[in-house]
Write a structure and sequence with these properties.
The chain has helices at residues 14-27, 59-69, 71-76, 85-95, 112-122, 138-141, 153-157, 190-206, 211-214; strands at residues 2-6, 12-13, 79-80, 100-106, 129-133, 147-150, 164-168, 181-182. It is α/β, with parallel strands linked by helices.
């Protein structure tokens, strides 16, 4: 079975580090906008739309802040989601060799990718698979994935029939709920994975045999 884990939220507290550098750059310094634009933070902060909480003059300015000015600081040096995140992740991977685990970075550009690789490395990630995708490709990625552990409402909403999502709760995604929620990776119930494993086996048994077998 193919299991995806989102890096942001599930493994990394990216928004906390983003918040720190936004405040340092625009609010706690003597920075002055050329056109008197007011930089400010509007709460509550939601992980699915940073522009609604952190005021930038444009989406391009937000991207410049993320991927040019502070990629290593935000993506490389962000804290982990909770104290034993990677110990728990590595244990799950080791104890479930029958499943294929992939950690997924969403909407990362430029230097944020090597910064994310640094983040995974410094925290001792022992898995084999790392993937970077864009939001527009989420539906296509579901074709290769059976279970997706994520903090993203967008990923959960795009989950097709026959697949499963597990919501990872954070400070920034309390604006929606889901039938299966965890706050630590150790809270994943084995029965959730067994149910999906059985469903996958059942579906494969229902598939027609190839023409060669039918004609014998």
């Amino acid at each position: 079975m193919e299991i995806y884990l989102s890096i942001d939220g599930v493994l990394r507290n990216t928004i906390q580090k983003f918040d720190y550098h936004y405040r340092d750059a625009y609010l706690d310094s003597e920075f002055e906008s050329e056109n008197n634009f007011e930089y400010k933070i509007i709460e509550p902060i939601h992980n699915d739309n940073l522009l609604s909480s952190y005021q930038f003059q444009s989406s391009e300015e937000l991207e410049y802040f993320l991927y040019v000015e502070y990629p290593i600081e935000i993506f490389g040096h962000a804290g982990i989601s909770y104290q034993t995140t990677f110990t728990d992740l590595n244990k799950i991977i080791y104890e479930n060799p029958e499943h294929n685990f992939t950690v997924v970075g969403l909407n990362e550009l430029g230097k944020s990718k090597p910064a994310t690789l640094f983040f995974l490395s410094k925290n001792g990630f022992l898995g084999n698979n790392i993937k970077f995708i864009k939001s527009k490709d989420i539906s296509e990625e579901w074709n290769a994935c059976d279970v997706w552990i994520t903090d993203s409402k967008e990923i959960i909403d795009l989950c097709p029939d026959g697949k499963e999502t597990i919501k990872f709760n954070t400070t920034y995604n309390q604006h929606f709920t889901h039938k299966k929620e965890i706050s630590k990776l150790t809270e994943i119930k084995e029965t959730w994975l067994k149910f999906l494993e059985n469903s996958t086996t059942s579906i494969s048994k229902q598939l027609p045999q190839d023409v060669g077998q039918e004609t014998q």
